[in-house]
């Protein structure tokens, strides 16, 4: 459970930002944001004034929110008439998360608070969330322990000729038995993930809607992501790219398995991926510029003659090599072109150099790291090696 | 796969509505809506003019969208400059789904289409979606076959003293092995579901954020829904309320299991729940008013002396007894107070009378039905009985 002290620290960081932007406060309606600042994910709206005490207005369940909330002033959602008065002071300029709030919700709150100007604080919110506390890092390390154990068990259930979806079922079963929560929240519009990808087929290199190097075929055009009914062959890379979620926190890891032998071209590319990961890990230090790390990774891929396979099939390469991870799979920062901000201590990133060879498959590595003064701290302990069966 | 003929029928139904409302067309950006009208869930934006040919603008993946799309004019997403011209005619009044479109997306498209008025067509869209074709009913029936088989297997793995989450793991494993897709889409803001609920504890009657009769404790305050680590006792009702998702379509069913004996009060309430379900099923005919069906169900519960337990713990009763189901778990129509519209042939509803006894548990039934001229057609074949082990 989130402690009151940690919630207050988070709210204090937000209030500093609100003051700096001349705002009177911020109104959070998205459940993951409400959970981050209050400790409860019940159906609630959180008001954080630029200074003073926050208030949590609960729709459902008040009983449960009251038991979980770190906000002293947790109360039932007021009536429309009472709503403006519930803020306890005159407010004019309100921060709001335009990235996730639907238009209907926006208009609803605009009506409740006539005369107020709503300002987009999506980026501010994501930047605050990107820097993890010691307690948050502990949550992600725990995810790493649990996910690592499932990865270690893969040789027990991975067999030639099984369907990708059967491999996914075995992997997900063990995650769930470990107490995994399953929900993998994503913030970006149009993105979603059902736990992870178990992909081995010749179509592994095909692109899809997912903003990553690999999408997979999925089970249908309605769910075109992850495992399909294709059979897992020998002598080809089998990608297992999965999340584990405990206490709302996510870790993201990828390992490759091969039944038999691997094409030397892919084996070579694997070595390059690990070298890129290790270089980036060493440089996950405060002040390092995200874009520069991506460009350095791309340079290493280019030097190895693999630029066109880097992070996507030739011509469809994604322009990133790592992404923030925490309560959502797609947090800040992103090691991507155009992301010119410096890293901060406590940010957590999934670093995932991958190479795509259409018709042959995908190869690479992924681990989740925390930014420290001494470079990236790996938040899991599993060896990086390809596992040959 | 969606056929071109069926996509054209759906688009034709939408165009009639757009014409009736004097709109020039509708712009869909939400992936489930795009899938419904086009057959692809790739990252795309669909333009449906009030008359004439629709266009699908694809961000990612164009290759895959082109292969799946039933829209003849499927093209890469145009540049900002080209965007207004890509509509091929002058448009002024555009339908948009305010219920699910984030403010940032709304503002983005407003900028791309200067001078256009955006109008909320959320309700129109949901009403169109609520009426299923023969092909859609076939998809849901298939879900029913698969989900029914997992329910039938429960006696093989349900044991006294196992954790709720272990029961969930066993159930979800079999669903996934059957090819289940896992993604359970919900449309309402602040709602989410990870596959279903396996809940047996004395806390089954506690409320939560979820808009249903039962929420469950879940594994943490971050994921406060469904199975918890509580141990499954003998002589108490074990609720298994699960979805199955194939080809994007969802079925929703609940069965109860008891290891040993059940409290006579709950056994009595189960009989009342089945009687309410059967009454509603007989009356799922075109023209029946949703609210009246809910009130009749409430009346039956009241006559049985169970009003305060109906659809929630005493004082926290939900005011509904059934909900539409299709590509999303919370479709139209809803058998709820205030929902005064008549049913239409082809609508599909999960009917779920449940009674909550705090400290003792929950009991009831849930099946998914299609509205026909002769009353509800049950879309699955599993017996309703409590299964005693």
From TrEMBL, chains A, B:
Pfam families: Creatinase_N, Peptidase_M24. InterPro entries: Creatin/AminoP/Spt16_N, Creatinase/aminopeptidase-like, Creatinase_N, Pept_M24, Peptidase_M24B. SUPFAM superfamilies: Creatinase/aminopeptidase (SSF55920), Creatinase/prolidase N-terminal domain (SSF53092). Residues 138-373 form the Peptidase M24 domain. Residues 10-131 form the Creatinase N-terminal domain. Keywords: Aminopeptidase, Hydrolase, Protease. GO terms for molecular function: aminopeptidase activity. This is Aminopeptidase P family protein.
């Amino acid at each position: 459970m989130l402690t009151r002290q940690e919630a207050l620290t988070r709210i204090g960081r937000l209030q500093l930002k609100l003051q700096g932007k001349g705002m009177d406060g911020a109104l959070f309606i998205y459940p993951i944001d409400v959970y981050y600042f209050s400790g409860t994910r019940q159906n609630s709206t959180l008001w954080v004034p630029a200074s003073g005490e926050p208030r949590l207005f609960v729709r459902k369940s008040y009983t449960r929110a009251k038991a979980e909330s770190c906000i002293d002033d947790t109360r039932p959602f007021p009536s429309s008439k009472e709503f403006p008065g519930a803020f306890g002071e005159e407010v004019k300029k309100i921060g709001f998360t335009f990235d996730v709030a639907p238009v209907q919700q926006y208009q609803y709150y605009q009506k409740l608070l006539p005369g107020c100007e709503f300002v987009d604080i999506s980026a501010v919110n994501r930047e605050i969330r990107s820097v993890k506390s010691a307690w948050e890092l502990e949550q992600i390390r725990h995810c790493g322990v649990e996910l690592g154990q499932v990865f270690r068990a893969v040789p027990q259930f991975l067999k030639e000729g099984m369907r990708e979806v059967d491999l996914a079922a075995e992997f997900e079963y063990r995650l769930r038995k470990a107490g995994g929560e399953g929900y993998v929240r994503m913030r970006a519009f149009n993105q979603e993930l059902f736990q992870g990808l178990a992909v081995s087929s010749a179509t592994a290199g095909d692109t899809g809607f997912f903003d990553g190097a690999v999408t997979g075929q999925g089970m249908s055009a309605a769910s075109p992501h992850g495992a399909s009914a294709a059979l897992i062959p020998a002598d080809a890379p089998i990608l297992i790219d999965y999340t584990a979620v405990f206490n709302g926190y996510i870790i993201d890891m990828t390992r490759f398995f091969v039944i038999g032998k691997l094409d030397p071209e892919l084996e070579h590319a694997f070595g390059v991926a690990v070298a890129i990961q290790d270089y980036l890990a060493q440089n996950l230090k405060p002040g390092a510029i995200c874009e520069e790390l991506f460009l350095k990774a791309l340079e290493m891929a280019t030097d190895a003659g693999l630029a066109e396979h880097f992070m996507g099939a030739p011509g469809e390469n994604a322009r990133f090599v790592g992404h923030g991870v925490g309560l959502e799979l797609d947090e800040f920062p992103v090691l991507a072109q155009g992301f010119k901000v410096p890293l901060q201590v406590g940010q957590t990133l999934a670093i995932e150099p991958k190479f795509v060879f259409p018709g042959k498959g995908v190869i690479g590595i992924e681990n989740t790291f925390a930014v420290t003064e001494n470079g990236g701290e790996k938040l899991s302990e599993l060896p990086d090696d390809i596992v040959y069966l």
